[in-house]
Each structure stands twice: as C-alpha cells, then as structure tokens.
Amino acid sequence: MSNILQCSLLFMLAVSSLAQAQVYQWVDEAGRHHFSDRPPQKKVSSVKKIEPAKPTRTPGPQSTHAETQQPGVAVTRMNYNHPASSESLKIRRMLEARNFSQLNDLLSKLQVTVQSDISQDVELQAAYRAFWLSESHWEAIFDDWVSLFPDTDTSYLARASYRISRAWDARGGAYIDKTPQENIDHMNLWLALANSDVERALSIEPQALWAYCLKINAAKAKGKYAVAQEALEVANGRYPANYIARKFYLETLDPKWGGSVISMLGFAQSAQAQANRNPNIRRLLEYAAYEAGRMSYINGEYEKALELLDIAIERDGDARTFHLRAKTYRRLNNPERALKDANTAIALEEDNSSYFLTRARIYAGLKHYDQAFKDVERASALDPDHEPTERLRQSLLSIARHPDSEFFEPDTTASTEVDARDPASLFNFAKQLIANNKFAEAREALDKAISLSPATFDYYKAVDYALFKMGKTQDILDYWARYLSYNPDDGRAYLERSGTYYHLQDFDAAKKDAKRAVELGTKGAAKAYKQLQALSSG
After folding, report:
1. Buried b (16+ CB within 10 A) or exposed e, 159-183
2. Would you say 442 and 433 are in contact if contact means Cβ atoms under 8 Å apart?
3. Rg, C-alpha atoms of the chain
4. Among 45, 135, 261, 271, which is least packed by CB within 10 angstroms?
C-alpha cells in the first residue's frame, strides 16, 4: 500500500476515533512536537494529555441560485462573480509608488488592532503577504523603505517577508533530497537576510506577531524545529489566542516536512481551547484533512481526495480547501461543482492568484472566454511571473473580445505599398497588419505615424488594440499619457485609458479616468463609471 494511501486511511481513522482517544503530547530532544494515542517510549521531561474537543462548524457562504440547479444547468445560468478591488494590489501599488509612510501607518494600525482583537490576525497576515514577491526589481524598493525608516519594525518585516519569499523561490518545491545544493545555498542566503530583518524588527517592537510567523516559516525551511517551537511559544505567550503563528507551526508538522497527519490533528485539537476567543483557530482542525486530501490529489486518487476534502470542509474548511476541491471536481469533469467551490474560495480569500487561475480554467473549459479572461487578468496581476497563468492569458488573448475589434477589417492582405512619410498611409497599413494578427509590425508602423502626427486619436486607439492583443497592457498607459499631453480635454482618451487600468486591475485609477470622461461629456463614460464604482474602494 502506498504511503499516500496509508496516510489517507490513517487520517480517516483518526477523524473517527480522535474524539474518543486519549492523545499524548511531548517534545523530543530535537525540539519537535509529537502527538500520539500512546505515551512516549523514551523518557522525556514532560508529557501532556490533550482532552478531546468537539468539532465546531461556522456557517459557510450562503447557497446561490446556481448551487440548487441540476448539473448542466447551473453553469449556463450562473452570473459571473466579478472580483472587486484587490487589497494586495493596492498595497503593492503603494510600495511601487514608494508611499512608505502610508504603508507604515497601515501596517502599524493592523498590529494595534490585533492587540485588541486577536481575531483580526488574518488581516495582518493578508497585508504582509502582499510582500510575498519573487521579482528582483522589488529589492531596491524595500531597501529604500528600510533606509528611510530605519527605526520602524514595519519596514523590516515587509522586507523580511519579501526575502523569505525569495528564499522559497530559490529552493523550489521538490523534496529536500531532490533539491540541488545550489538551490539550498541560495535559499540560505535569503533566509539569513530575512532573519536579520526579523530580529531587528523584534528589537524595535517585541509584540510584532508577524515576526514570529516569519521565524517559524524560516525555521521550517531549514528543518530547525526547535527554533520554530520556541517562536511559537513566544507568540502564544504574547497572543494566547492567535491563529496565524499556530497555522505556520502546523505546517511544520506536515508529512512533507517529516511530521504526520496524527501530529497535525493532535496539535490542532490542543489549540481548540482558544477557539472561542479567536474563531479562526477552528480552521486548524481541517488542515490535516486538507493535507491528506492534497496527497491523494497529487497521487491521482480524486475520489479519495473528495472524501477527505469533504471532511475538511465539514470541519470549517478554509479557502485553500474549497480551491483544492474545485480542482478535484474539475479533474472529475464536474464543472458545475468545480465552479461553485472556486467561487467560494475566492469569496473567502480574494487575493490568491491560484484561485483565479483555476476558475479561469473552468470557464475556459466551458467556453465562457470573457469570464475566463477577466479571471486570468487578475491572476496575472497578482503573480506576474507565473508561467501557467501567462500561457493561459496568451491563449485567451487570441479570442478575447475587445470593443475596438470592428475597427479593423479581417483577413485583409497587407499592402506592400506604404508611404513612410504619410501618417495616414502608415495607419492604413497598420490596420491591415492588425487584421492579419501581425501586431508587432503594426505597432512599428503606428509609432512612425504617431511621430509624424502625435495628436491623432485613431493612431493611439489602434496601438492600444495592438498592444492589448500582444499582452503588453502596461505599455498602453504611456501612449495615452502622450496623447493627453497634446489633447488634455479629450474625454475619449480618458475613457480608453480607464479601460486599460481596468485590465490592469487598478479599479481606482480606472474610476478616476472614467469620472473625468463623464465630466467631459464622453459617450459611454457614465455607464463605465457606474460599473467601476461597484468595483473600486471609494
């Protein structure tokens, strides 16, 4: 019998018997926590018996009309749940704009809130996870933040979050015996930098809960479980009802890291005494079921994965569990149930790129390409370097609808005769190229036309379309900024740029431009502005 199957069966047995069984907890010489239904064979300093806790369940999202339909009907009637403005992307835009004072205020207020209401610790985690970035260009920005604010814990914790993300990226996702030494060396370099930031942050603010989460996560990467245990104990001492430090520690008990499902269950159950103070703690109980389900999913045992994930969701499943069940239903060719679970995952956690990618794949499989494209744009904005997301995005770009599609004649043979000194001739040539999907060549022709006639709206509209189809949405902003420098009161340009910001998931900027277009009396602007009001923050 495979180890994965054994672990799955062990979990199902544990779930049914743990409420009756006595669980023992102890710490070995290496600092690792152990949980078992039998006392330790070797002598240890102390052994603790854990009293069983009754599982509780909090109400999940309410059923929608789509959930009550028969398979084959729900998807065709389901309204698309458009993602609202992303808090993570807002934080990253603040970072990119170097609004460090604003970021310090935001993060400090979240820390203060946690000290008075520990159930808000998930909000603190969500804010700092916005800095979980892998692109190298962010490094200089974090360094500037620390240089300008060397006496604030938030600047160090933000940079530490980034550095730990880089460490995991350097390591890769393979088991340690399959990981090249070069990867491990790079990981250790990033972890050393991150730990330095964490220690500096704690010297400034010993109450910084996120610092202890980072210490646990870094210790897991290096297999230093005693360090993880020590960080957890300090976090629990300062915040007895915290969820996020316990959640990070629970991950060190994962079988992938040398732990076991029974250890995860025992640890989760031992925390339930604090669940009344912080309901998030109830989520810990389902993590072991999720992990067993994940292993079954990886092994291709989708029916067994469903059984385990159902157990996890009965025990107050979180967004991650609904997402994995959505992927499982998709593998089992049940798009109705897959879409329902993907919607729930996104409703519970709005800034996870993987959830939007999964839902995009479901919609694409159903040939609902417009919805799929909206989701893949959000996934791409949240994780720009993710290759599977980019592949799906490029695939959908070829079939995505664009309001200017009718602007170009399809299947027109491009003329070889073009007057390079005549912008109108260059424009017509570019339109023919676009109609034949030669977007890069069209951009070159339009650049020449714009250089000859820099205030002509249609040239910019055409290059907007070409760049959109090339997947270079960010570049479009520079063109409209240039046009508006010549025609600052052309509402059409503001409306077009509003659409670009929309595709870049910057709904606040999109709304601002749409509002300006309304003020200038632009046709269609009022409708766009109203739609954006529902998506942006204020």
Report:
1. bbbbbbbbbbbbbeeeeeeeeeeee
2. yes
3. 27
4. 45
215 alpha-carbon distance from chain centroid: 21
Mention every residue, 6+ apart, whose C-beta is less than 8 A from residue 114.
Answer: 120, 121, 123, 124, 209, 239
Strand order in the sheet with 23-27: 33-36, 23-27, 48-50
More confident residue, 508 or 62: 508
Fold annotation for 102-252: 1.25.40
Q: What is the pLDDT of residues 41-84, one digit of tens each?
A: 555 555 555 454 444 444 344 333 333 333 343 454 456 788 88
Domain boundaries, the chain: 3-50, 102-252, 410-533
Cα separation, 254 vs 286, in Å, equals 13
- Single pTM value for the model: 0.78
Query: In 252-333, which ranges are E strands?
Result: none
Angle 88-204-223 (CA atoms, 0-180°, nearest 5)? 70
CATH of domain 410-533: 1.25.40.10
How do 23-27 and 33-36 pair as beta strands?
antiparallel
